[in-house]
Amino acid sequence: MESLGKLLAEYRPFAGQYDEWNKCIKLNDKGVSMQVFEDDEYDLERAISEHYSESFSPRFIDYSSSIIATRLLGAPLMTVRLTHLKNGGCVLGVCANHGLCDGDTFYSMMDRWAALARGTDLPPTVVIDQSQVPFDPKRRTLAETKQAVEDQGWTWVSLPPAGLRLARIATTEGILLHDQHRSKPFHISNKALKRMKLAAELDAKYGGRQLKGPLTSNEVVSSFMCQMNAKILGFADNTPCGHSTMFNWRGRLKGLSPHFAGNASSAIGTCEFFAGSPLGHIAAAMNRGLDAFKTDADMVEEHCKLFLDCHHHGLIAHMSDPRSLPYLNPIPTSSVTNNFARYPIYNVDFGTGKPDLVVPHHCGDQVIIWPRLDGDGVDVYFQGTTAKRVNAFTDPAEVAWLEAEMTKYETVLDEDSIRAWFDFRMSPTACAKDLQIKSDSLWTLNPVVVGRKPVSRNTSLWSAVMGFVMDSFVRPTAAILEQS
Fold first, then answer.
1. At how many degrees (to 10) do helices 217-232 and 279-295 cross?
2. Alpha-carbon torsion angle 237, 239, 240, 246, nearest 10
């Protein structure tokens, strides 16, 4: 493990120790926990097939670097467990305290560790410099922070001190108010992704939904998973919902190095919508919501400062109502997606070849978008309550419905049929038929208030028709597949 020693010389905080009294990490080079086991029950095939089961992670990962253990017991901030499987193969389980790093730092560190193990000569690019994070020397007081939260349209939750501490531990530890369930991975191929994006673009176009730029794969897949979360959790079509995503400050925050090692990300609310909204309507709202974070550097800096002020004062605040998020709500109406598709996760080669599988971490995010070894699109995982519902599907009809929904852009809807469907549905005859049948319900849609932000559906003739067009366009797919 010479390479691990070299790695820790660059990432010194990971070998340090948390100082609860001074609320800091001591760079005392205490080291990390390293374990090596032999497993005579699991072979590589079984480990891969059961990687999303509840028993997998506790078997192959040492969780003694948890927030509670490191704060109260002085436990190592990072643990490594290497398990040799029967008949060859191994599992490398690495657990790092979230107070040290975000996903960007963690997976960059793993890539660097693998390069060191291969003997690759690397330049010292790791930046551990907290001064790059925009702490305001004239930090807001608690009252000023609450006022800024309200001015920015965020929502904060007031709890008694004991409840506040419990909630803060729960949201960082991921063990109390949400569960550790994970679904099997669902594959969205490049072909399906292209079709999904086309359907969303046409829906946004004909539905009069404005875009700030081309729809991205992240926006389209996240919108699709928002739809699926709502369906799996059984929300009525008129249920107000929201979406948040993890926002990486690197490359967007002035003065922050792209190689910054630490926590430089936060959850941002992107949009609000109704549970029954068509794919393109959600994607267009998400596209508009993310635009400012892509283009307005001053807004990004103010967002980061306010986020840090809230954290400093122990204030649970978010652009969405925190009570709607999966971290604090067992039946969350706000979906949280975390996209790791762009990270070189499958390039982590310690000298024996690329891994057969890399299992996602679990920090309570409702949806993980994950890269694939073969590079064909992405895998998506449900987590938490949604995953628990999915894993409880035992009825053949439920299983068939879920598979049909998750694969409809792969197996049923090709690009020609998508275009033809929109051309037909936007014809005068089809529109008139929809209006005749649906007009009574079309014009009874009223604005619904979520928190302090009004959410309303545009009930213009064109948008109202398209709402029902996309409902009929998307939903019969399961029935078609079940009958075939």
1. 130
2. -80
Q: What is the pTM of this model?
A: 0.83
Contacts of 73 (CB under 8 A, 6+ apart): none
| Cβ neighbours around 443 below 10 Å, total | 11
Q: Which domain holds residue 96?
A: 2-100
Q: How far is CA 125 from CA 7, 11, 221, 315, 421, in A?
A: 12, 11, 33, 34, 52
Show Cβ contacts of residue 216 under 8 Å, excluding neighbours closer than 6 positions. Answer: 287
| 3-class secondary-structure state, position 60 | helix
Regarding whether 303 and 235 lie in a shared domain, the answer is yes
Q: From CA 242, how far away is CA 97, in angstroms rounded?
A: 29
Integer angstrom CA distances of residue 364 from 91, 275, 343: 23, 21, 20
Neighbours of 448 (CB within 10 A): 14
Query: Tell me, what DSSP letter sits at residue 445?
Result: -
71 Cβ contact list (under 8 Å, min separation 6): 18, 20
Q: Do 199 and 54 lie in a common domain?
A: no
Specify whether 327 is located in the same domain as 187.
yes
Q: What is the pLDDT of residues 98-154, one digit of tens each?
A: 888 899 999 999 999 999 999 987 777 888 887 777 666 678 898 999 999 989 888
Confidence of residue 468 (pLDDT cuts 50, 70, 90): very low
In angstroms, rounded to a whole number, what is the distance separating the alpha carbons of residues 244 and 439? 33
Name the residue with tokens 């699709």: 224
CATH at residue 170: 3.30.559.10
